Amino acid sequence: MTSPDGSVYSGAWRMNVRHGLGRKEYCNSDLYDGSWKEGLQEGHGSYSWTNGNRYIGNWKNGKMCGRGVMRWANGDLFDGFWSNGFRHGSGVYKYVDGCLYYGAWSHGLKDGKGVFYPAGSKHPSLKKWCRSLQHDDTGKFVLSRSSSINVEELRSLSTVTPSLSVKTSVTGTSKTLSERFRDENLRVSEPPPSDFTCHGPSSKSARSSGSGQREGQDKNRVVYEREYMQGVLIRETITSSVDRSHKIRPPNLPKQVKSRNFMTFLKGEHNYYLMLNLQLGIRYTVGKITPVPRREVRASDFGKKARTMVYFPRDGSNFTPPHKSIDFSWKDYCPMVFRNLRAMFKLDPADYMMSICGDDGLTEICSPGKSGSIFYLSHDDRFVIKTLKKSELEVLLKMLPKYYRHVGDHENTLITKFFGVHRIKLKLGKKVRFVVMGNMFCTELKIHRRYDLKGSTQGRITEKTKIQEKTTLKDLDLAYEFHMDKLLREALFKQIYLDCAFLESLHIIDYSLLLGVHFRAPGQLNDTLEPPNVMSDQESVSSVDVGMAQELSIPPKGLLLVTHEPNSVNTAPGPHIRGSTLRAFSVGEQEVDLILPGTARLRVQLGVNMPAQAHHKLDEDKEESATIELFEVYDVVVYMGIIDILQEYNAKKKVEHKCKSLRYDPMTISVTEPKVYSKRFVDFLQKVFPEEG
């Protein structure tokens, strides 16, 4: 078909639209050759621009999406993942002069940790690195029979907001760093050439020159471990390529988790079948309990007889469908209680079932702790499924009546939201117990840091060599204090006191505050992201210096609090939909929304979308290292919740004797009396979130 504008398409059709394999030459001589769906590029295809740029990879809804390779006319190449026409996810950027950058992108900007290899330095094999990525078309690690490690999709936004100061304490390197820093950011948003017009799919990333300038000119064996936030370089560590060459892994790909304790049999196909069995069981449970009229729970609903058991043979039965997994038995605990809890948390049964049991499947994520538990993540990131030990299951069922009343009385509770408890019995009598929980990090913002805080010092630090982008850090790794609005802080600690008192009454210990932090790129560097023809190098440096004289403000200047408007915020169902909107002192004690300029408008709830200012704690006695910190203060959005609440205190452990034998102060031991533990826990959090003035 020849269109009036001169473009020519030859290929398959359906219902008068392009559908199937086809080739289209646009009027400006751009060329697409590949798969189409309902008139748009979808599937695998190749797009060549008239200026010499070419993309080969996956498409969705007419835009580059999934795994793909872009080669620019100047010889630069990007091999990685795309979303909505932008580089988004893990990837490697190879410059024509031999420099390489392994890292992560979000909406076309570098975001997260990565490693830059100057030309001439030793780097990992590109082919080996690319083959090691086991992703689906969305850039997400998927659970398959050959892969048991999964990582959640990178999330973040592409705009920047203000921070307030710059660190310049590293002597002898500031000038060199400033030059590299300026060059790095001038290339982030380099404008497309005037002749680079695409009459087919629209993509800002495809039209750019691909960061045509070089990331470094050092022809040596020094490499740079870098961290970016929305395209701004915030941290850099200089190391040797020889030191890194033997241990480099693809970004975001954690080490293989070894099987541990009672989960040793869950390998390969068993793990795959376990996921299928879990989906079948939950679909059966929700489908059976939902038609039953809702009623108030009774004491019998918490008893030992409140169980549902069913056998799932492979060929199906009168009550179960045939399936492709292995035979298993399914046990559902307290179905009426959890049905009411899901309703209390405002979860629609159909959404809940489709989120966990849909065709997209579950994603396995590496365990952040030492429990040996297996964790699954639903495809939409709303739910986390964790395997339980028998002792943990007993504690959960024992505390369930009081838990039900507590979450009913306190809609803003920070305690983990439980949506269901189940057990699968496999061949040879192997039993696996699960609990379904809400994912407190289900957000459109990228979580840059995760902390598991207990208020303890003994063993509460992470080895530097084991820290990856998704690593959950501990108490002694926390190098920030978080300052927030007066009323937000008061509401936070009021609920923390209530939740700790509840856990103390149940003799629960060893719980943690799981803290997630989304950093906003320093706003005084906005100008350095402008096109290079708009700003000179001299202007870039002066704009950074101005930030040092700015005064601090609470709430942060880059995170705007405005009066809450229910129709202006996202109300999509999820683990955070329950809970009241918080009031802020800075907005006349009104209910507030959080506006991230150019990004989103979010409802501020307790533990969700809470704006703050992160002040980096400086250690003057610390020896100078190769790591260069560029900023002291960041605008952040924090997420938090109390987790690991299934450890009951047992006086027979003789904690005091353990303290004496190891010569530890009792206050440094994680396991101690519930009353002492809760006090220490709250005291530590008051230091993390200090009161203003």
Automatic annotation (TrEMBL):
Keyword Transmembrane: no
Superkingdom assignment: Eukaryota
Any one GO MF annotation of this record: ATP binding
Low complexity bias (residue ranges): 200-212
Transmembrane segments: none
Cited SMART domains: MORN, PIPKc
EC number: 2.7.1.68
Domain PIPK: from-to ranges: 268-689
UniProt-listed GO biological process terms: phosphatidylinositol phosphate biosynthetic process
Xref: InterPro entries: MORN, PIno-4-P-5_kinase_pln, PInositol-4-P-4/5-kinase_C_sf, PInositol-4-P-4/5-kinase_core, PInositol-4-P-5-kinase_N, PInositol-4/5-P-5/4-kinase
Keyword terms, alphabetized: ATP-binding, Kinase, Nucleotide-binding, Repeat, Transferase
GO cellular component, one term: plasma membrane
Catalytic activity: a 1,2-diacyl-sn-glycero-3-phospho-(1D-myo-inositol 4-phosphate) + ATP = a 1,2-diacyl-sn-glycero-3-phospho-(1D-myo-inositol-4,5-bisphosphate) + ADP + H(+)
Residues covered by region (Disordered): 179-221
Class in the EC hierarchy, top level: transferase
Protein name: Phosphatidylinositol 4-phosphate 5-kinase
Source species: Brassica campestris
Source lineage: Eukaryota, Viridiplantae, Streptophyta, Embryophyta, Tracheophyta
